[in-house]
Amino acid sequence: MLPYKKMMGTEAKIKRYWRELSPTLLDVPKIDSIKILGITPGSYNLNFHVRVNQKAFNFRINIDQQSGLDNQIEYEYRALQFLEGHRIAQGVLFFDDSRRHYD
Fold it and tell me: Are 19 and 31 part of one and the same domain?
């Protein structure tokens, strides 16, 4: 279980979210197992280390806007896409700003 009391239930919520993703998005044939390996809190987000089958991912939940932008998470996503080509940041798969799973 995750180490923060206020995060109770978050591990199950994250697993449920990942189970709803398309396996092709994650480049796996099917989703057999999901493990939450840890959490690294930031000032404005929570970063989870997630393993789907044997493939590792970082999963970021934005918890506050640091720039005052309404589209903070999209801005970060686009910046990471740009940096990916320069090999100084991890690749990104997608961003979800629907707030369907997280408020």
Answer: yes
